[in-house]
Design a protein that fits this description.
291 residues, alpha+beta, Zincin-like, 2 domains, 4-stranded mixed β-sheet, two-stranded antiparallel ribbon, 10 helices, 6 strands, 7% strand
Length: 291
């Protein structure tokens, strides 16, 4: 699977940096002569887990622009650009949020929204999307992205990712300590190799399981954003048409960490568990059956 959320990738990198910094500064004092201090460990896990997620959220806009090469068009005089910006402005007003920055990036059909705050988000569409879809379909896609912003999806994903990070860090170290002291019977003053090996392995294994949970939440927010686009358009058919057209194309490949913020993906097989988006046919069916 090529499409992996930039948010998650950046988050993991930030977690690593915070973890190293905590070790150098002696903040990780949960290992004591009397064993694990579970309260300190939980505080440490929350600090690193939520810290990585929150920092990733705060830098999401500049990272998104840098990684996709997106160029802001808010002040452009190009007629197509003015239409895109006007569409975003109209939907933002209808959704009750501040007008996001608007950008275009080169690539196959795709779009994304990101940003830490509802009133200062970023909505971007690709050149491929503009070239292959009708104006009404593009407007539906824009409505989908504005709905993500209005629904606070980036903040929701940050909270979920932070909780998952915290559990991964906490459980891997508790289990690692148990393996080292109980199973391997390390009776020395400090922890041994069993703790470190188990912690590293479980960080990976539990991290994979956490990614499945995060992806599940992400897929459900897509249905909500599709319905939000239909509401903003006042008609669900344009969004159905846009999804059907996207379903017949190879989805534009955003940078790996940006995949969850895009409009589409093509999950299949076991990797569908890690997909940030449901299959197009499921999204179309859900819209068709909605009121």
């Amino acid at each position: 699977m090529k499409r992996i959320l930039l948010f998650v990738g950046t988050n993991l990198a930030v977690m690593l940096v915070l973890g190293v910094a905590a070790s150098l500064l002696g903040v990780n004092r949960f290992l004591t002569a009397n064993g694990l201090n579970l309260g300190m460990l939980l505080a440490f896990a929350a600090l690193i887990g939520f810290g990585g997620a929150i920092i990733s959220l705060l830098i999401s806009k500049p990272v998104a622009k840098w990684s996709t090469g997106a160029k802001l068009i808010n002040d452009s005089t190009d007629p197509t650009h003015r239409w895109i910006v006007g569409t975003v402005e109209a939907f933002a007003k209808k959704a009750g949020i501040g007008t996001p920055d608007v950008a275009i990036f080169d690539g196959e059909p795709n779009a994304f929204a990101t940003g830490a705050f509802k009133n200062s988000a970023l909505v971007a569409v690709s050149t491929g999307l503009l070239q292959t879809m009708s104006r009404e379909e593009v407007e539906a896609v824009i409505g989908h992205e504005v709905a993500h912003v209005a629904n606070g999806d980036m903040v929701t994903m940050t909270l979920i990712q932070g909780v998952m990070n915290t559990f991964v860090i906490f459980l891997s170290r508790v289990i690692g300590y148990f393996v080292d002291k109980v199973i391997l019977k390390n009776d020395r003053g400090g922890v041994g190799i069993g703790y470190y090996v188990t912690t590293i392995v479980l960080d990976i294994v539990l991290g994979v399981l956490a990614a499945i949970v995060v992806a599940w939440f992400s897929r459900h927010r897509e249905y909500r954003a599709d319905a939000g686009a239909a509401a903003l358009m006042g008609n669900k058919q344009p969004m159905i048409n846009a999804l059907a057209r996207l379903g017949g194309m190879d989805p534009g490949e955003l940078p790996k960490s940006m995949a969850t913020m895009g409009i589409s993906s093509r999950p299949s097989g076991l990797m569908a568990l890690f997909s940030s988006h449901p299959p197009m046919e499921d999204r179309i069916r859900a819209l068709q059956q909605s009121q």
